[in-house]
Every structure is written in structure tokens, then in C-alpha cells.
Amino acid sequence: MIRLTSLTKRYGDTVAVDDLDVEIRPGVVTGFLGPNGSGKSTTMRIIMGLDAPTSGSATINGRRYHDLERPLHEVGALLDAKSVHPGRSARNHLRALAASNRIPPRRIDDVLDFAGITSVADKKVGGFSLGMSQRLGIAAAMLGDPGVLLFDEPVNGLDPEGIRWIRELFRSLATEGRTVFVSSHLMSEMALSADEIIVIGRGRLITQGTVGDLTASADGVVTVRAVDADRLANAIEVGGGHVERRNDGTLAVSSLNAEAIGRIALDAGVALSELTPRRASLEEVYMDLTADAVEYSSTAAPHE
Amino acid sequence: MSDRVTLASTTRAEWIKFRSVRSTLTGYLVTVVLTIGLAALITSAIRTHWTSTTELRRITFDPVSSSLGGTLFAQFAVGVIGILFITSEYASGSIRTTFAATPRRGTVMVAKLLVLSATTLVMAEVVVLAAFLLGQRIYQGVVPTASLGDGAVLRAVLLGGVYLTLLAILGFGLGLILRSQSAAISVFTSLLLVLPIIVIILPTSWQNTITKWEPSALGRAMMSPTPALDTFGWATGTLVLCLYVAAVVVTGIVLVNRRDA
Fold this sequence. Notes:
The structure holds 2 protein chains of 2 kinds.
Chain A: E1 2-11, E2 14-24, E3 29-33, H1 40-47, E4 55-60, H2 71-74, E5 75-78, H3 90-100, H4 106-115, H5 130-142, E6 148-152, H6 160-175, E7 179-184, H7 187-193, E8 196-201, E9 204-210, H8 211-217, E10 221-226, H9 229-238, E11 242-245, E12 251-254, H10 258-268, E13 272-278, H11 282-290
Parallel strand pairs in A: 3-7, 3-8, 5-6, 6-7
Antiparallel strand pairs in A: 1-2, 1-4, 8-9, 10-12, 10-13, 11-12
Helix pairs in contact in A: 3-4, 4-5, 9-10
Chain B: H1 7-19, H2 22-48, H3 55-60, H4 63-67, H5 71-92, H6 94-101, H7 105-139, H8 151-178, H9 181-201, H10 204-211, H11 215-223, H12 234-258
Helix pairs in contact in B: 1-7, 2-5, 2-7, 5-6, 5-7, 5-8, 5-9, 7-8, 8-9, 8-12, 9-10, 11-12
């Protein structure tokens, strides 16, 4: 369990994390979603005790990272896959980590095998591809068999095989009752691997909930086709719906659900030939939610 | 037995890290080659020209410090070992992994210092002893020699190893403050090479007061059995250098605890 309480981090005038209050529960995969520069990595570094918050706190199982007696047994993290001395072998990197937290050396072979990098264990990390480095990072995170796992953009640089492997890994780690906290700037990725999603933008919490909650909360659009479209449109507008006429003769209705529209059509005596509710995709919901929070967005070139 | 993360467990981890990169071995090899190789070169040259050396030079000649002349070059090699031991962690970002494993940063730094100073001290003492013995062997029969049986001589040779160790720690401290390999190497070489050059430009009366405070002058004071008139005695020299190094290292540790990693 990770708990962020009024977490705030400022760099001079820039607010990287703004009064964040969330709880990341064990047993599920929690996606941490936001555009680039929205404060995801900063938040993760604060959880890991690497950056000091300006105010508020981040705790793991009720304690600050600094107060953990055997940190690698409680928290495993993959923050930046390339942050290993390039001249050191994968095995020696893991040996040093194991020694610091008194993890038995046999565990090193286990995690190398688990991450599928046993064959390159004695090679220098500098020659690793990003995908191999990600696997080494995951091996390092699993070294102490921790109950809480943090992954910052873990899918970057992985091939499709690796992506599938990592999704299944998150799933099985969560099933084992661990807390799995995964950041990404890609909604499509989170839609596939996360159970719960926390969306932030400009360091602020935008929304939090299950994948289902997020799409349900978004306004769906119902496509309606009727012989007498004009009469139906009037009736719907009277009934409180918003109608947009499409070129193909259908009506796009928002603010009313399919059931209400069907009732209005019945009352108005208009025969319907189509009534199709369409739920917004998670991607659309995300784009909608973060539209105001994108730090660098492209705009049309200014006119002279 | 406690299974917590302690100074002992962190020191074991740092020892593995120190040994497992090539730059450490390279740095020590350069130290060996420079100290012993230059001892052979310098003492052979002195022996060759001894008959043509002036009487004044012969009287003030010191067989100990002349055989340890290589340390003035080897000091850069050990300094770089110390610098790289910390700046490579910042360059690669592995410092975050290190601090995640041992959240108490002071513990990490003390562990690194233990590994760096113990290894460098053992290595440097062997090297200066070898350089001294080789030098005396070359001098033998022509140039006056010194013996380790003489307390002052033994002390001067052993302090040669201490001097190199302190400079490795100085390099580490500068690396910790600056977090950049190139910046730390620039400052380190400036302190040892450029500072003395600047002092030469100053008026003579100032030179005499300032020169003896320079790290390399402190090294000369430590490595001569009989101190020259313009330097500190060995004890004061060692103490002043220790204070310099302590000031730099303490500043580094204070900063590392304050800064975001």
C-alpha cells in the first residue's frame, strides 16, 4: 500500500506535484497516467525517498522510505532502466544490491532467470539494449521479493514479446497480493494492463477510478436514425437532449441515454430505424481529461 | 544477526561495486607504474649525474623524497579513482539505485570512503615502499642512501602512502560536491597544478607564506625525513592536509543529504 498525502513538490516557481492525495492499494495493478511532464516520475522519486517533497508525505505500508529497515524487501522499483554503471556486469550489479540488503546470493540466479537474462548475466550492462536493461531493472526490483512495486514507463523500448511478458508479470504480481504501481503516458497501454487508474496533469489529480468508472463517467453519444428525423430532433431537444445532425442523416444525441430517447420517440410517435449508444473509448476520455493539462501541445502556426 | 541495512552490509555492496569496474584497476595500475617507474627513472638520472653534481646539491640531497618523486604524478591517478568512484554513479544515474538500497546517504558515503581509503592505503603503502627500496638499490655505491631502520625515513615513506590515500579521498569529496567527472578533475588538477603556478606570479614575500599551504607542498613536508625550511613539519603538514580533505568531504556529505538524487 502506497499513500500520498497532500504531496507537493515545487522547483522554484514550477509546481511539479500539486497537492496529490491518493492511495494505491495492494492486489490490483494501478496505472499512473498523465502526459509527459505531468509529475509522474517526480512522484515516484518522492515515494522512493530520492527527492524530498516540498510539503505533504508519501508512505509505504505506513512508513516513509527513509525509515524502511530493509527497503529492497519492501519496495522494488524500476525508475530508469539505463541507470546502471555501463562497465559493470548485470550479475555484479545485482550482487551489490543483494549485499546491501542482506539478500542471499542464490536469489540473484533466481531473478536473472525470472527476467530471462541469465545468458547475458556476465556481460557488461553498457552493451545492453533498452529491452535487456528493462529486464535487468525488473530483476533488480524483484531481488528482495517486495510487496510493493513501482515501474516508471516500463514498456518503453520493449518489443511486443516483452510487452506481453510485462503485462502478464503485472497481472500475476497483483494476483499475489502485491501493490503494483505503473506509470505511463499511453492510455492504450494502461487500458490493457491496469485495473485502477490515476490520471494526473500538471501535477494535479484529475481523476481516479477503475477503467470502467472512467469510461462510464464520460458522456456517451447515442446515434439515432428515424424516418421523420426533424420531428424526433425537436422532441429530443424538448426532452432535454442535445442533438447534432450528421451528414448521413443520423442524429448524434448527447446528455440523454438510449432508454430515454426510445421513450421520447414512442411518445412522439416516431418510428426508429437505429438506436446505438456508443461509449467513449478510454483513450478519448483520457485525451479529454488531460487536454488542459498538456504542458507542451502543438498549436497552429500563428498568422502574420 | 540483524538483517537490516547497515554500514557493514552497505560497505560489502560498495566493495563489490568498487572491484567490478575496470577504471579502478586501471587507476591503480597507473599509480603503480608512475610511482615505481618514475622512481627508477629519477634515481637513475641522479646516479648518472652524481659526479657532476655541485657540493651544495650534494649536501641538501634527500635520498628518500627523491625516490618518492613519482607520487607527485601518481596523485592524479588516485585522485581520479576517488572522483570516478562517485561521479560514475551520477553519470549513469545508478546513484538512485544505490540510495534506494541504502536510503541513509551518509551511510553510503562512509561505506564508499571505507572501501576507497582502505584499498588505496594498502596499495599505496606497498607502492611507495617498493619505489623507495628500488631507488636506494639504484643509488647504492654511488649516491648516499637511506634505510628504513631509520625512524624518520620509515615515517617519511609511510606518509607517502598516506598522502596518496588522502588525495584519493580529496578527489572523492570533490566528485561528491560537483557530481560531474570533468568538473571534479578540473578542480582537482587546478588545486595541485594551477594554484602553485598562480602563486609564482605573486610577490616573493607572499609566496613563502602561501606555498607551504599548497597540497603538494604539504605532501613534500610529509615525505621528507628532515623538513625543508620553507615547509611545515611532517606532523603539521599531515594535519593540515587531513583538515582540507575533511572539510571537502563533510561539505559533500552535507550537500548529498540536502539535494534531490
